[in-house]
TrEMBL record, chain A:
It holds the Pfam family CoA_trans. PANTHER family: ACETATE COA-TRANSFERASE YDIF, CHOLESTEROL RING-CLEAVING HYDROLASE IPDB SUBUNIT. SMART domains: CoA_trans. This is Glutaconate CoA-transferase subunit B. Keywords: Transferase. GO terms for molecular function: CoA-transferase activity. Transmembrane segments: none annotated. Gene3D superfamilies: Glutaconate Coenzyme A-transferase (3.40.1080.10). InterPro entries: CoA_trans_fam_I, NagB/RpiA_transferase-like. It comes from the Bacteria.
UniProtKB/TrEMBL annotation, chain B:
GO terms for molecular function: CoA-transferase activity. It holds the Pfam family CoA_trans. This is Glutaconate CoA-transferase subunit A. Keywords: Transferase. It comes from Faunimonas pinastri. It comes from the Bacteria.
From TrEMBL, chain C:
This is Glutaconate CoA-transferase subunit B. It comes from the Bacteria. The keyword Transferase applies. InterPro entries: CoA_trans_fam_I (IPR004165), NagB/RpiA_transferase-like (IPR037171). Pfam families: CoA_trans (PF01144).
Amino acid sequence: MRELDPRREISPDERMAVAAAREIHDGDVAFIGTGLPMVAAYLAKATHAPGVRLVFESGIVDPEPRELAMGVGDYKLAHGSTKIAGTAYALSLLQGGRVDIGFLGTAEIDAFGNLNSTVIGAYRKPRVRLPGSGGANDIASMAKRFVTICRMDRRRFVEKLQYLTTPGFLTGPGAREAAGLPGAGPVRVITDLAILGFDPETNRLRVEELYPGISLDAVRAQCGFDLGEAGSIGEAPVPTPGQLHLLRDVIDPEGIYIGPKRA
Amino acid sequence: MAQPSKIRSLADAVALIKDGDVVAIGGHTARRHPMALMREIIRQGRKDLHVVGWNNGIDMDMLVGAGCVSTVETSYVGIGSFGLARNFRRACETDGLRVIEHSETTAMDRFRAASIGLPLFPSKTGLGTDLPSTNPHLKPFTDPFTGETWMAVEAIRPDVAIVHAHTADEQGNVQLDPERWHDNSPDVMIARSARTVIVSVEQIVSEETVMSRPIDTILPRTDVTCIVEAPYGAHPCCCDARYDYDLEHLGRYHEATASQSGFAEWLADYVTGPADHWAYLEKIGARRLMEVSMKRTTR
Amino acid sequence: MATNDYSLAELLTVCVSRELEDGGQGFIGLGTGGRAFTMAVGVPSVAAELARRHRGIDFTTQYGVTFEPDLKKTPANFADPYLLAWPSKAQVRVEECLEYFRRGKMTVGFTSGAQIDRRGNLNTVCIGSHDKPKVRLVGPIAQSDHCTYAKYTFVMMVQDPRVFVPKLDFRSALGHGDAAGDRRRLGVPGGGPRKVFTDLAIWGFDADGDMRVETLHPGATREDVVRTVGFDVVFADDLGATPAPTPEELRLIREEIDPEGLFLEARIA
């Protein structure tokens, strides 16, 4: 193993990648998009979850790419895969309830973990028109559980979404079932400040783990809704030298998705 | 054999598209969109189109920016890692562009249903969200067998589908190379849902070539109205293993679309300026085309 | 005209060929052997090719998943390895091949059955009661798809009183139902049976969907038809003779399209 550069600080992206990797259990069928989830999935597979089955949105199953793909449609991703099946196949795994975990990003999130990637501002006259659902609603509706990864700030963590693109717990306990949605819904929200989960009684977001040097008040200050009473708060995982080596030297040596530039 | 040739010029094929048509677009994100056909749509000044896809980017953004579109129907419009689609943003934020919101499977299922002759397709996607309030083609219903709530996704019958593929013979049998994503099933559904089907291809090949590997035919000629030969017809999108994304060009596009005037210049440079697809390829240049081609695979 | 200078298969081929329309698409099943093969596969195959060559029409043949195979390179054995290597324009997925029916692209389905009634309804499920059949047959396969969705069907069968029956033991495919307008009332999109081609005659249907003999093959009599049919036979007012093949049609069949008799003499293993 090459000596890690001691001057290089651990970046928020690296912390989030390690936290996201932890959400993947060995043997899971994991539905993966581009960016941090791709890095996290490779990390999980290289460490605690060698049996994870990675399904990319473009229908690639279990690739062994030699270079990090620039997107899920990048042909580099196909190298060594056990199946090149197409997006319709990948989505059919979701529709058939066969995906254990999916990862999502978002422009807005509310206290019940509902997400907005459609508009900022009024729908008919938006301030910012965003790309739309993509496969996000499918993942949140149909995967057995899902994890949201995003930076934390008050414009993102909002009391009320301006458009509900993707269902978390909707209006709280029982609402997913009432709407007819399968799947347990959101289980974790991984941010640059803290790792959040959901209170099983109220289905509302709460802080579960803090990164070193970040106070609970600092997290509250970046959240636009009440995070409730914190119970026992743990310490978020600090990337180990082994994990950092994998991230920096093996998985993303060019720093495409995680790197000092992006810190 | 009395099988007619289905080959048409780019201009003649696009002339089949009328103002106000519902036009379904093949490919997804920045992959295998029929860009040569779409540039010709802009050259011919088509208006008031209702464009439909399942995951889109520069294709729809360019048509929207050029003023060809009144309604966008898809799950996603973005320029990949470069960020938001700026023409699309402007049109939504200032011009009130109508958007019919989907998630990926519901967008596909509209085509899927039509392509297999069904009036609707059942789904769980969209339940409990704002999608149905901004999409008249999603309606909850009760499963008559289990009493469960499902979402009905209404079939769509586009006036025209435009798709880009690798090869076709004169009669219109469309093939993809064996080295491909196998990601062709939505394109097949999109084509089979439409009344008129225009396919641009990298190359016209002989009937014998097609018949030597019939398993690579994605659309038999009975599914196809006409074929247009357009090498690098997906540029700057990628075309499976034939050529990669032209990230430099996509980046330049994204920068240009920061302002309406920047996009107008870009349009003049790359779309309305070049008289046809060949002039466009000359503008891009052999060197650049070879550079993206050389990145075929990492194998 | 009773001269026997052409075969029954050639006669039927020419008759079917003349019915095929420009721009049409026809679905031909694969699988049976012997005489049933000639009727169900051989005749439609050669007829489509004859229509292209002789009348210059554009007609798409679909053999299950295989589109427009090269008849000149027909394998002498229809086992899978040979079928797969048969040069053709497309081999689609099996569910796709039937979707051409469901979305209304199929002009004509070539079909058959173990029983047919005077309304063109078909049975391929059982002889005797369904719960305790005397003979259990193969089942409907895609026959119900043909009869539901195709613009029309051509039924190919050999006349026999046990086959042309007053009442089916089981209706596995809808013809013209029980009464005029039944298909429309049921919301069934296709047109149902248009012609029945047999070893003795060509049958059509009147406006109410009742079957009637339209032409008798050379050498066949009204009595032959009545004797081989289990229900009351109606003859068209303008009953005629099935028109004979022309020399040019016979030449094309024998010298160019099917010189080895693979299709019309069922020489395919």
